[in-house]
Design the sequence.
């Protein structure tokens, strides 16, 4: 396996990208371990450095498909980075690495793709905007499609936006647990505890099995806010 990883490192050495070789190796191993019949989804791809790592890992495993989504409604800088020239270079880099048959390239915003998504996701790689609202929207849009043993890898955790999203999803608002971190990428897994909540008068619940805390009043408030936003978006489209 060391030789295979070194070959991918050489393939991606000239590709511009924000991930380190150590993060690339992490993605390779995560993609390689994806079970047969499930897929890998990448949100935010740049010029394809992380995509090649994912695709080569998938080919070393069960040859699962890698769905690479070009853009989402992020900051203006992120939108510019995913312009036409970047997309051309992305396709060129996939072809050079001979992974174009493993990767399904989607040139739509991730929330648009998520609305019609059907497949079970075993690995979700988020490498997009570092703005809090953008990072939160991506994770919320896609977490419903994760398989029970799925992993979520989030890049840029040294920035306040992704770090805040992770803190929320590890805490009161989420169903994830920490697995590992490499450089600025953090990997989450779905909490497997079948919780038995003991809820006090302030609507704070504590699981008697694992000790996890949850603010149920806040959960209801966030759910209501999310539903109101969805309705507003629906009215604007009509």
Sequence:
């Amino acid at each position: 396996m060391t030789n295979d990883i070194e070959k991918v490192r050489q393939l991606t050495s000239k590709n511009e990208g924000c991930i380190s070789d150590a993060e690339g190796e992490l993605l390779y191993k995560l993609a390689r371990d994806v079970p047969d019949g499930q897929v890998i989804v990448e949100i935010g791809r740049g010029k394809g450095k992380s995509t090649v790592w994912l695709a080569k890992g998938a080919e070393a495993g069960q040859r699962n498909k890698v769905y690479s989504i070009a853009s989402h409604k992020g900051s203006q800088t992120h939108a510019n980075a995913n312009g036409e020239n970047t997309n051309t270079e992305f396709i060129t880099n996939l072809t050079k690495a001979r992974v174009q048959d493993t990767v399904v390239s989607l040139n739509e915003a991730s929330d648009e793709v998520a609305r019609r998504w059907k497949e079970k996701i075993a690995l979700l790689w988020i490498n997009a905007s570092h703005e809090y609202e953008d990072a939160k929207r991506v994770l919320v849009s896609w977490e419903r499609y994760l398989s029970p043993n799925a992993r979520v890898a989030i890049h840029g955790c040294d920035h306040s936006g992704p770090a805040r999203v992770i803190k929320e999803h590890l805490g009161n608002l989420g169903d994830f647990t920490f697995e590992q971190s490499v450089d600025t990428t953090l990997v989450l897994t779905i909490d497997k505890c079948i919780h038995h909540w003991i809820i006090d008068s302030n609507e704070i619940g504590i699981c008697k099995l694992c000790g996890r805390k949850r603010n149920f009043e806040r959960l209801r408030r966030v759910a209501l806010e999310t539903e109101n936003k969805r309705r507003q978006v629906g009215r604007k489209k009509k």
Observations:
- Confidence is low (pLDDT under 50) at residues 73-84.
- The CA atoms of residues 30 and 123 lie 7 Å apart.
